[in-house]
Structure formats: C-alpha cells, structure tokens
Protein: LL-diaminopimelate aminotransferase
Organism: Candidatus Protochlamydia naegleriophila
Amino acid sequence: MVKRNLHLAKLQSGYLFPEITKRKKAFLEKNPSAELISLGIGDTTQPIPSLIANSMAITAEALATPDGYSGYGPEQGHFNLRQAISEQVYQGKRPADDIFVSDGSKCDIGRLQILFGGQASIAVQDPSYPAYVDTGVIMGQTSTYHPLSKQYSGITYMPCTPENSFFPSLEKLPRTDLIFFCSPNNPTGAAATYEQLSQLVDFAKQNGSVLIFDAAYACFIRNPNTPRSIYEIEGAEEVAIELGSFSKMTGFTGVRLAWSVVPKELRFEDGHLVQNDWNRINSTFFNGASNIAQSGGLAALRPEGLKAIKELTTFYMENATMLKEMFEALGYIVYGGVDTPYIWVHFPNQSSWEAFEMLLEKSHIISTPGSGFGPAGEGFLRFSAFANRANIIEAISRLRRALHKLDRV
Ligand code: PLP
C-alpha cells in the first residue's frame, strides 16, 4: 500500500466551501422545498459581455479550419495579451515580458508555493483566502499544528481586524520569506491605502521578504485614492510579485484566465532572477492558458471590452451597496462593500458557524462563516454581492425579516 502524503493529512477538515456545500445538502434533505439563495461562495452570476464571448466563439470556430488552427502556445501566454495587460492594467509600468498568463490565480498561488518550496516560511492575513495556507500546508511549510491557537508553525498569521483597520501590526511580526497580502481583500473587503502599502513594501525590503500581492479584486476599486496595483508603490518591483485575474473582472470563473507579474528586479539571495525560476516552473507544470480564453482576455482589454467590464463590476458593486445599507439600517457593524463586492458583517454574541446556521434556518440564505478564513474571522459572516438582482432583492427582504425577528426575541 502507498503511504498517504502526510502534509495533506494535516489539512484542516476539508476546504471551507466543500464544508458549506455539505451543510447546505444536509439542510435541503430536511427541508426539500426550501429555495436557498447563495451569497456564500464568490462565484460570478452575470453573463460574460457579448463582445468578449463573441471573440472567444470566433477563435473556437477558427480552430476548425486549417488556417485558424493552433496547438500549444507559449507557456507564458500570447505576447499580444501580455502586451495588452502591460498597457491597460499597468499603464506600461510593468513590461510585457514580466507578465505570465495563466489558467487562474489559484493555480498561480499553488505554483508560487512550488517555486519557493516547502522550506519557505510564510505570513498570511488573518482572515484570508484559504488557498495561501492550504497550499503552504500541502508543500510541508509547516510541521506542527497547534490545536489551541489553530495555527501551524511555519505559517505566521497577521491578524487583520477592525481594531487595526484590517492592516497588520507590522512591528509585532517576525520575518518570513513570503508575505501573502490581498487587497482589496477577500473576505474582509478592506482595501489598503497608499501609505499602508508603502509600509508593507518597506517592511518586505527590510526583512528581505517577497511580497505576493493578490490583486484579484482590483477591478472593483471605486475610491480613486485606493492603489490598484502594488507597483504604484515606488520600489515595489524589487520585492513584489502581483497576481491578477479575469475571473471576477469579466465573469471568467469558468473560462479560466489570469496572470502573474514577476519583475526582473526581483532576485533571490544568490542574485538569481526569480523570474527565471518562475519561467521554469511554468514551463514544467503548465502548458499555457487556453487559446480561446486568451482571445477573450484580449477582447476584454480593448476599449469596448473595458467599458463592458466597468458596467459588469458596477452592477456587482450596486448589489454590495444594497446589502451593506440593509445591514447598517438594522444596526449591524459592516465592513467592505466599497472597493470589493464582499460585505463583512459582525454578528455579536455568536460564533460564525452559529450565525451561518441561524441565517440558513431562518432566511434560507447561504453566507460564508468568517472563521473559515482564519481565527480572526470568528464572529463575522461574509456576504458575496455576486448574485443577480432579483436574488439580492429577495435576500434583503428575507434578511430584514429574519434579523428583525431576532431583535425582538
Ligand atoms: N485570489 C483571491 C483573493 C480570490 O478570492 C480568488 C477566488 O475567489 C482567487 C485568487 C482565485 O482566482 P482564479 O479564479 O483566478 O483562480
């Protein structure tokens, strides 16, 4: 018999979203006629703008012709797409050859962990997107699990709570090789300011750490003063890798297209270019993003595509505002919903899973328990604004009824 990979055995009871699915299934078995509304998993619901879908259809049809057929493309992505990302997302601040097109930021997170290896120490925001910790555990970045603190040694949790304005208290942090930082943040909705990101870049420089900046939600930023990229901070190219994704930007969660930026200025201790190793990892583990998806990405970055993206993201941000205003009117303390389509709501005197179960029972709404994103998420629920308008209106009316009833108890 083959021995199980012990690192996998160390993963906490499954990934958060499968656990939610399990509870949802159990609820539906008991209440088969319940019409659940999901504001849980952050999956997009609105159709892909037609000019982007049409471009993919044309590419797909061309594949059926001798002239239009193409096989494997470059592992780094088609140069015209890398160029378009360089120009449209980074206004030329990052050159096309620093950009690597991929099949998703989640996959890039996994491959980055392979790049730095199981011996690397990492720091993550607490709460944070679970993939940073889980990929680290799978890589064996940690050997000991501490049940009381629910933490692994080798992984530093940086509490990000209302008390520190969702920005880690850097002076209390130990040095780690990697720092994962997501802004605008999933799940808290917090978007770091220019000053905060400057401090983070300085901190990474002083410690010789690599900052992995997850900008998957940058396209939702509405505040003109909120940085959209870590490269808006001077000198960040010497310490930071950035991840970008088409998933939420163009409804590509199922199409799969993303990118990473690994600047040439970023070097290992021995002077070797990180970009060279990243190129090696990508050429070894990956054979390039789908050529159909890449043609959609290119269409999205043309002027009409950018206009369509703005409309799509504005739609979700309107949902976010509606949800936020409803909770606030009921007296709840709410974060996020300004530069991100996530609402982070505090449920006093309840654990996150208790609040989750309560809303499932009373209003048939699926949310995401904050504690599933890390210990500092306890007592919060995350609501996703990725939903169609009818569901948001119905969810708001159900939540109003459910939470009013609770107030009167
Ligand atoms: N990073 C964050 C913070 C996310 O929330 C998500 C998806 O929800 C991802 C990365 C993964 O994005 P992709 O669909 O590109 O794999």
Observations:
- The pocket of pyridoxal-5'-phosphate is lined by residues 42, 104-106, 129, 182, 186, 214, 216, 245, 247, 253, 258 (CB under 6 Å).
- The longest helix spans residues 303-329.
- The domain at 6-48+309-403 is CATH 3.90.1150.10 (Aspartate Aminotransferase, domain 1).
